[in-house]
Structures are given as C-alpha cells and as structure tokens.
Amino acid sequence: MTDERLDFVIFGATGYTGKYAVKVAAQLAKEKEMKFGVSGRRKQALQAVVKEFASDIEDVPILIADLKDEESLKKMTAQAKVLVNCCGPYRFYGEPVIKACIATHTHQVDVSGEPQYIESIQLKYNKAAEEAGIYIISACGFDSIPCDLGIIFTQQKFNGEVNSIETYLNTWVTTKVSGALIHYGTYESAIYGIANFHELRELRSKLYPERLPQFWPKLKPRGFLHKSSISEGWSMVFPGSDRSVALRTQRFLYEKYKQRPAQVQTYFTLKSLFSVLTTAIFGLIFVMLSKYEFGRNLLLKYPTFFSGGYISREGPKPEILDNTRFSITFKADGWTERLVEPTDKHDNLPNKVMITKVSGTDPAYGATCVMLLLSAITILKESDKIPVTGGVLSAGAAFNKTSLIDELIKKDIKFEVVSSIET
C-alpha cells in the first residue's frame, strides 16, 4: 500500500448504513489520526453527508464511483488502503467491488450477513486475494462480529478445551416510542438470502471438499422451541449468518493451528409465547413468499405490513436506535485439560462449563459501524498479527490474535466472563 492512499474510503456513504459509517469514521479518524474519504454516485449527496456527519473533519475527499462503471471502481479503490463497502445487498452489488479491490491491491471490509455471497466470494477470489496480498473480510457488523469474536473470546478465556458452544441472542428496546427497528436494505438482503438458501449445499461442497473429523460428544440442535437456564424466555434457532460465519472461523483455526474446532449452535430468545407465535407466523409467511418471484415482489413492495411494523424504507428513528440493546450469551462445554492433537478423544464427558456474554447498544447500525470501522483500522494497524498475508477470511480468522476485542470494549461493546464451573 502506498503512503499517498487514504487510510480508508467508505463506499455507499449516502445509504442508511453508510451515513452511520461516516459518523463513526469522523470520530475514529480524529482519535486514531487517520485520513478517510467517501464515495458514491452523486457528488451533491456525498457533500451533504459529509456536511451533516463529518463537519469537523477538514477536507474529506469525495470520490465518484458507480457499480456499473468498472474503471470508476478501480479509480476509487486505488485511492484507499481499505475499502469500507456499505453498498448492499451484496449478492447484487458486492462482486464488482471485490474485483476492483483485487485489481488495485486494496483491502475490503463489509457488513454482509449473506452466507451465499460471503462463501461464493471465498470460493471465487480467495486465491486472487492471497496473490494480491489483501484481506477481503465480510460480516464485520452485528452480523457477525459479536457472535464470531464472542466465541473466540470464550475459547481464549476457557483455560481448557472447548467442545461446543451454544449462543443466545436477546434484543430489546428500553423506550415506549413505537416504530421500525430495521431499514429496508437489511430486509431486502434477508429476502434474497432465504430465496437462494438452496445454493449453500453445493457451494460448501466445492469450498470444503474435505469434511472436518467428527467430534464427540456431538452437539445436537435443541429443536424448534426450548427454554434455557442462561436466557430468560423461549428460544428458537437463529436464522441469521452467525453460525455459518463462526463455523468458517472454527475450520480456519483447525486447519491453521490444529485447534479443536468448537461445535456451534445459535439461538435467539423471545420473552413470551405470544411473541413466539407472532414471530413464527410472520416467519413462515416470509419464508414461503421468499421462494417465489411474485411473493418476493409482495414482500419488497409492502415491507412494513409483512414485518409487523419492524421494517421501513425510512429506517428506525434515532431515539429507538439509541434505546435498543442487545446481548449474546454463550454457553461453552468442554474439558479442563487440553489434549495434544485436536482429534484425540477424551476419556471422560465434558467437565467444565463457562458462560460469557457480549452486549451493547444500537446493534443494527451504531454498533455495527463501530465494528466495521474498527475492523478496517485493525487491518491497517495490526496486519502483522493476522495469521496469513492475504485471502478471503472471516473476522474471527483474521482478528483472533489482534486487539480488536479490546478496542470494541473501549467503545462500550462489552465482552465478559459471567461464570466458570468445573463439574
């Protein structure tokens, strides 16, 4: 990377998430003494974003780039050490940016929570990214930094050998103000993710032709609905990208360090059976309609109706975001002793349980953009601690030996050990 480049450029800065990224970037750039720029199609709109969210930063460069113009993308990425891509859905708009980053030897981070996109990019471009000496790291927001790095944190604190980890997501709003919680763009990504879920089996068979060894005791899913002692309410399987991202990380740790990979199951918790029932009904309708073009058109045309008011094109009100909290609680089972080889079998059942937690505020946008920008900064500051010199990686694979968790804690995204019991 040349010294003349900007430290990072935010592409898609006029979008809903992009504006939050500019706001966070302005704060971090002053704190870390770094230089950033913004990019998109419309100069006037970009100027307005800079004026509103980065007015106290002198001379924020504005770069014009269009996804339909390959040369404009290369010109943009050539001016950045790290490209912060906020332009989704990524299955439609992500690949041209990846190609430009590889061509200009520019690192890329994004907030995609789309497993099909993430894993297809790994399959297609991992070798090219390695040869270019750059890092392509997706899911650097709420999808799926808290879960992925929360598992890394738990493994690091366990002081033994982890066999399995179950995660429980809780979100809640502390204000009585009503309104949407999620912006339309996130909803659109979810629709196409469900519609193309069938792609994953074939994709993973190509990406991972060799299966991991079978580990004992096997962690089994708990079924559609269950109660857990560590998460108050009723819990169901979490349909997001957390588990797929975490398993990519665990495979990397096994292949790179011969570390026993944790088996992972992810859940989310609702407080009441009424909430479970309404979520199940909306979820079933959502899944069924997502499978067909006419259904997707309905979902996209009437987002507020089909989400029960949780989705809007305008996005959440600031007062709702500021009062939205999240926590992910992790239950790790394993052994106090670590065996020499990851495939060695223990003579006894797991004899240790550790409970950890990651928590914070405004998960969908505020915390997401803190995670995203700190991921970019970590690449710049600590590339010597990333275990490979380039490639398409998960956040856990890239940042497990860096100070990213410590930096997140400084920004009020809390990682903590709740309890540790030997049985």
Mean pLDDT level: 95
Major beta sheet, specifics? 7 strands, parallel
* Gap from first CA to last CA: 51 Å
- Mass-distribution shape: globular
Q: Report Rg.
A: 21 Å
Percent range for β-strand residues: 15-25%
Q: Which stretches of 5+ consecutive residues score pLDDT under 50?
A: none
Q: What fraction, in percent, of the residue positions are helical?
A: 40-55%
What's the structural domain tally?
2
- Strand line-up of the largest beta sheet: 3-2-1-4-5-6-15
Number of strands: 16
Please, how many helices? 17
Structural class by sheet pairing and helices: alpha/beta
Give a description of the structure.
Belongs to the saccharopine dehydrogenase family. One of its GO terms (biological process) is glycolipid biosynthetic process. The chain has 423 residues and is an alpha/beta fold. It is 43% helix and 23% strand. The protein contains 17 helices and 16 strands. It has helices spanning 16-32, 43-53, 70-77, 90-93, 95-104, 115-132, 145-158, 184-195, 199-207, 242-257, 273-290, 293-301, 303-306, 318-322, 366-382, 395-399, 404-410; strands at 6-11, 36-40, 62-64, 80-85, 107-110, 135-137, 161-173, 182-183, 226-228, 231-237, 263-270, 311-312, 324-335, 352-361, 391-393, 414-422. The strands form three sheets. Strands 3-2-1-4-5-6-15 form a seven-stranded parallel beta sheet, sandwiched between helices. Strands 9-10-11-7-13-14-16 form a seven-stranded mixed beta sheet. Strands 8-12 form a two-stranded parallel ribbon. α6 packs parallel to α9.
